[in-house]
Amino acid sequence: MILISAELDLADPGAMGDAVAAAGPAQLAARSTAGCHAYVYAPDPCVPGRVQGYELWEDEQARVAYLQGPAAPDLSVDLGGAALSGAARASWQVVASEPVYDDTPRARADFFSASEQAPDQQIVILGEIDLDDPSQIDGAIERATPLQQATRDDEPGCEAYVFAADPVVDGRIVVYELWEDQATLAAHFEHENYFAMGGLLRSLGITARTAKYRCVPA
């Protein structure tokens, strides 16, 4: 699999609402494309004016076919013409993937179902969290934002930690995390920020699907 991440900074943070709404049809089109496992561009709760995005494709052929197809992205159009003040992009080859939680269930930083471990490789976590009551989404993101900022600020090896509202699915929180290696993710799973976030989400009533991906630069 191929994993893409992107940070897009709007020149006018006040244009975020219109930009995300304009990008909705493009996101839905990408998600319905053969070989697309995830395609999300959502407002970063911690950085005004920043769109945090990630894509997960079955392989490079699927991604290229999408880019060459009629739904190929045009940022100037998909963001409603919003100007960007900056952008960053990274891509990885996924070498192993499995659920975050084992049968216990317990969060695991090691790849417990893999035949080999590679503790120095980066780990990406992607997830979808559906709220039992979709109307709570704005309050949930507001309450989760300080925990996101604390995780980014306080935990070594945290390169991204985003819990954002899905722009096209009501009541869904999308998750994107990037950790330097297995050890830093393991430390996170023992940190008060992790337990606080878990407690907050469980208090809301949720259905969650999360997976982790061991990656190397593509």
Keywords for this structure?
single chain, 218 residues, alpha+beta, 8-stranded antiparallel sheet, 30% helix
Protein architecture, described:
- The protein is an alpha+beta fold and 218 residues long.
- It contains six helices and eight strands.
- Strands 2-3-1-4-8-5-7-6 form an eight-stranded antiparallel beta sheet.
- The longest helix is centred in the last third of the chain and has 18 residues.
- The termini are close together.
- The mean pLDDT is 94.
Radius of gyration: 17 Å
Mean pLDDT: 94
Oligomer: single chain
Summarize the main sheet.
8 strands, antiparallel
* Number of distinct beta strands: 8
Share of helical residues:
25-40%
Instruction: Give the terminus-to-terminus CA distance.
Output: 10 Å
Q: Which percent band covers the strand fraction?
A: 35-45%
Spans where pLDDT lies below 50 across 5 or more residues: none
Find the structural class using helix and strand composition: alpha+beta
> What is the N-to-C succession of helices and strands?
EHEEHHEEHEEHHE
Enumerate the strands of the largest sheet in spatial order, edge to edge or round the barrel: 2-3-1-4-8-5-7-6
The shape is globular
Number of helices: 6
Short description:
This protein is α+β, with helices and mostly antiparallel strands and 218 residues long. The protein contains six helices and eight strands; from the N terminus they run βαββααββαββααβ. A hairpin with a 6-residue loop joins strand 2 and strand 3 (50-57).
Structural topology:
Layout: E1 2-10, H1 16-31, E2 36-43, E3 50-57, H2 60-67, H3 75-78, E4 84-99, E5 122-131, H4 137-154, E6 158-165, E7 172-179, H5 182-188, H6 192-204, E8 206-217
Antiparallel strand pairs: 1-3, 1-4, 2-3, 4-8, 5-7, 5-8, 6-7
Helix pairs in contact: 4-6
